[in-house]
Amino acid sequence: MRVDILSKEFPPAIYGGAGVHVAELSRVLAPLVDLNVRCFGEPREPDFHGAHVTAYPVPAELDAANAAVQTLGVDLTMIQDIEGADLVHSHTWYANMGGHLSSLMYDIPHVLSAHSLEPLRPWKAEQLGGGYRISSFAEKTSYEAAAAIIAVSEGMRQDILRSYPNVDPGRVRTVHNGIDVSQWHQDRDTDVLEEYGIDPARPSVVFVGRVTRQKGVPYLLRAALQLPPEVQLVL
Predict the structure, then answer these.
(1) Statement: residue 214 has pLDDT above 70
(2) What burial class does residue 67 get, using C-beta atoms within 10 Å of its C-beta: 0-12 exposed, 13-18 middle, 19+ buried?
(3) Most C-beta atoms within 10 A of its C-beta, which of 39, 97, 173, 179?
(4) How far apart are CA 88 and CA 96, in angstroms?
């Protein structure tokens, strides 16, 4: 079985959780299926734990275009290479339209994983201008047509059904992010904490992620004002 994964992010160019998710998923899937990863940007090493990796830059003709238009340009350049796949699996709106159009072109199932939702990120209109309407259209169209949608949490599943009421709930499944216990395990050494001035003897509230409105950091900071003085906040 051949599966083509479409993603904006892929090692070494990772800036968020979706990129980590795709990298780990690819590492696990590669021994099980004929796996192709198609990502955005500069050329990558062609082999990633057995997965074949191809990167697609923004078409030169779109260098000065809105970022959303550039994204669609990359999606379109991927489509001809997806011919022959049995299933296409896209991640985030950046790649969703590539998956959707490939599904139409080659009559194959399109599965998408939800990591975030455009209707819940209205501040992107400040970044993309009219491009936010394009990204919203691309995501909505893809979600409503997908053969299956994977939500990384039950909360995300509810957000999907609330944001896109035309989506059949039976097509939305919750699959929590896994942890490879051979790589992630408890480390009792405190040298890194001490290097950053974190007292390992005090209880801590820790935030790990991008400092952006989407992550709700202001809510955490407001809550931190109510913490007892012995608790340290680590961002």
Answers:
(1) no
(2) middle
(3) 39
(4) 10
pLDDT at position 17, please?
85
Give strand pairing partners of 111: 89, 148
**What is the average pLDDT value for the chain, to the nearest integer?**
91
pLDDT (tens digit, 9 = 90+) per residue, 139-191? 999 999 999 999 999 999 999 999 999 999 999 999 998 888 887 778 888 88
Residue 58 tokens, joined: 């923004």
DSSP state of 57: P
Structure tokens that stand for 41 in this block: 């940007």
- What's the pLDDT at 201? 84
Given a contact cutoff of 8 angstroms between Cβ atoms, the answer to whether 122 and 99 are in contact is no
DSSP-derived secondary structure for 129-194:
TTHHHHHHHHHHHHHHH-SEEEESSHHHHHHHHHH-TTS-GGGEEE-PPP--TTT-------HHHH
148-151 and 47-48 strand pairing: unpaired
Task: Return the sign of the alpha-carbon dihedral for residues 131, 100, 76, 160.
Answer: positive
**SS3 of 44, please?**
coil
